[in-house]
Design goal:
Length: 472
């Protein structure tokens, strides 16, 4: 939330006519956009208050096309910004001045589902939901479930190392990537990884590209690990009149060595917005709500659900509702999945942020966010993955109000400073992009940032891939 818009001189930069003419020869006419009307949807992503017009959008359908485009860009020093569905929340796919937008959504085939080895090979433009559905159709399970999974692409998930509601138990995208085909800035195509569960031959190159936000290469194939589908699950919601009691319940659940599939949190503002939006039947007079789900063997699920219900009641929950069937479970889960959409209806601009602290600091951090919002006279709703300490403070504002946006900026600065002070991180799943790059050095220190820059320069010496993102 700290990046400024490009200067007028930067905004005036365009892709040269010579490069445009050569690009036209590499893709079909319907995969090449240059008219203003066609370009506008690609001038922004899911990040609030950030946009810039591209000169050209090129849709790719093959690895060879990606290779040829990067060779051309590298030869001519033309920036390239890779884009999937544009659901990112850190400005990672905002156009850079004079760039080619390389869009991978038409590389949308699942190439193989190998039940014997529990793997799935996909092109980058396949949606996360399509991956999950293909796995389920084969009796298998792909756990990562970012909130945008209906439209986000697997290539974007890899680029951002996306998380989701099931991250506490199952981990994030990185935990399911077994191999990647990547086109380097030079146009060279490399594949790192394989279907082997164990492989320690050389550096794990694939892990360098996961979470690299399109700054090191363009992902063109993803080899994913699948797991057996859980036999059953149980969903429940615990209602609290005190925020601290909800946080204590989370700590007690983890201390009891219970790792639920989902352990999500909504504050009062978010609950009211969700109920107004989705009419789920949530109480609007409570201070906090925990959405909990356990899955696995039926006996284990029953035992864990009973233990979590007992712990919540012991920690002061006034009510614990247990879903009677899948329909009711999906209805409860939709409360958390609709949080962002519900909050977005309240104000012209909704700035969803991402900060993670040790779980022992959750109650303090939630109170801190509330106090900061009060200090700067701002409206905030906080929700997130409480089980893994990942909070999403969401400011409801209006980007047309310059003075208010300045107060939002100051508020986030205090929030991220406090996050770092508590031993947390400035982003748990949204990435750095443009929005967080001014905080990166403060969070990591000079040494790690300089090492990242050195590695980036070694792969991309001409600086063509997503310039200006993560760091200058």
């Amino acid at each position: 939330m700290s990046a400024s818009s490009p200067s007028s001189s930067e905004s005036a930069k365009v892709v040269s006519p010579a490069v445009l003419n050569r690009l036209r020869t590499l893709v079909a006419p319907e995969d090449f956009l240059t008219s203003l009307e066609d370009l506008i949807p690609y001038s922004f992503d899911g990040t609030a208050a950030m946009s810039a017009m591209p000169s050209v959008v090129v849709f790719v359908r093959t690895t060879e096309q990606v290779s040829q485009i990067l060779k051309l860009a590298n030869e001519t020093g033309t920036p390239v910004v890779t884009r999937g569905s544009g659901t990112g929340l850190s400005g990672g796919s905002i156009p850079s001045p004079g760039c080619i937008i390389l869009c991978t959504v038409r590389m949308d085939r699942i190439l193989e589902l190998d039940r014997a080895n529990l793997t799935l090979l996909s092109e980058p433009g396949v949606t996360t939901l399509a991956i999950a559905d293909a796995a389920l159709a084969a009796g298998l399970f792909y756990p990562p479930d970012p909130g945008s999974m209906k439209i986000s692409t697997i290539g974007g998930n890899v680029a951002e190392n996306s998380g989701g509601l099931r991250g506490l138990k199952y981990g994030v995208t990185r935990n399911y990537v077994m191999g990647l085909e990547v086109v380097l800035p030079s146009g060279e195509v490399v594949f790192s990884g394989n279907k082997c569960v164990k492989d320690v031959a050389g550096y794990s190159l694939k892990d360098l590209f996961i979470g690299s936000e399109g700054t090191l290469g363009v992902v063109t194939k993803v080899l994913l690990r699948l797991i057996p589908k859980p036999q059953t699950k149980k969903t429940m919601v615990a209602i609290f009149d005190q925020m601290d009691a909800a946080a204590d319940a989370v700590s007690a659940i983890i201390a009891a060595q219970i790792i639920p599939c989902t352990l999500e949190f909504l504050d009062r503002t978010t609950i009211r917005c969700v109920e107004d939006y989705a009419k789920i039947g949530l109480p609007t007079d409570c201070e906090a709500l925990l959405l909990m789900e356990t899955d696995g063997h039926p006996a284990v699920v029953a035992e864990e659900a009973a233990a979590m219900e007992r712990i919540c009641r012991e920690k002061g929950s006034r009510e614990v509702r247990v879903a009677a069937n899948d329909e009711e479970a999906n209805k409860l889960a939709s409360a958390r999945r609709s949080a962002f959409s519900a909050l977005a209806r309240v104000a012209p601009t909704t700035i969803l942020e991402d900060a993670t602290v040790p779980r022992s600091e959750l109650a303090h951090m939630i109170r801190f966010v509330e106090n900061v919002a009060r200090k700067y006279k701002l409206r905030v709703g906080t929700f997130g993955h409480m089980g893994d300490g990942n909070l999403h403070p969401t400011f409801l504002t209006d980007e047309r109000n310059t003075e208010e946006m300045h107060r939002v900026e100051l508020a986030f600065r205090e929030i991220f400073d406090e996050t770092v002070r508590l031993g947390g991180t400035i982003t748990g799943e949204h990435g750095v992009g443009l929005a967080k790059k001014s905080y990166l050095r403060r969070a990591l220190g000079d040494g790690p940032v300089e090492a990242m820059k050195l590695f980036r320069r070694s792969l991309d010496p001409n600086g063509i891939l997503n310039p200006g993102k993560m760091f200058d």
